[in-house]
Amino acid sequence: LRLQGTTVAKPAKLRKIRDYPSSVLHSALAASENNIFVQGAVNEMKEVEAVLGEELTRHFSLQVDLRVYEDMLVKLEKGGEHRMSSIGRVSLKSPVMVMINFADNPTAIKWAKLAIQKSHLSVTPQQEGVVLYVPVPRMTRERREQLAHEAKGKILNDYKRALNDIYTQFEKKSNQSITNQDELRHTRQLLLDLKHAMEKRGVELIDTKRKELLTEIV
């Protein structure tokens, strides 16, 4: 059935994702058939899931990842947020110490220090002139539990928020394009089922990473 140049699957061919025993994404594609709204949502949610995987790998890494410091946002006195790497030179002084040089932006060091203190790193940076020395958090049992807790909190919430934004985007597009109310309801249900299924996948992925971290020998 074509509506305003858009091809949408007939209601009889649409089934809830949870009815399929196979993988969520495969089920969504099978259920959507020619439904471009669900297909579009699937593609974007897969991208968000990939970003979640990368974020978890970085979050749970036992190695020093300078991107954690480089990507940290610093709110300067005159307003506006800047990535740490844009206002200071981040480098690894030793396996247990990160060095950030603010020779090019000495006035930013105060605000950078504050950003680090307020971050999830739970460390106290030391200032020497225009340089900040940031101790790398020891991977103690308590530190591992803290990382696991943070993943279950902010990282998961950010992931769910991104999925919800995609759902809202394609639900709005379908409302604007589909005039048949039965088809509209089926499309909305598919999008909702997809969002919930992807949320569950995210929770399972985070739980797996958390268990791996907490069972490793310190």
UniProtKB/TrEMBL annotation:
What highest taxon heads this organism's lineage? Eukaryota
From its record, what is one biological process in GO terms?
Answer: translation
KW Phosphoprotein (keyword) present:
no
Q: Which UniProt keywords apply?
A: Protein biosynthesis
Record's InterPro entries? Ribosome_recyc_fac, Ribosome_recyc_fac_dom, RRF_sf
Per the UniProt record, one Pfam family is RRF
Any one Gene Ontology cellular component term annotated for this protein: mitochondrion
Domain Ribosome recycling factor residues, every copy: 61-214
Provide any one GO MF term from the record. Answer: ribosomal large subunit binding
In the record, the note on similarity to other proteins reads: Belongs to the RRF family.
The protein's name: Ribosome-recycling factor, mitochondrial
Task: Record the organism.
Answer: Angiostrongylus costaricensis
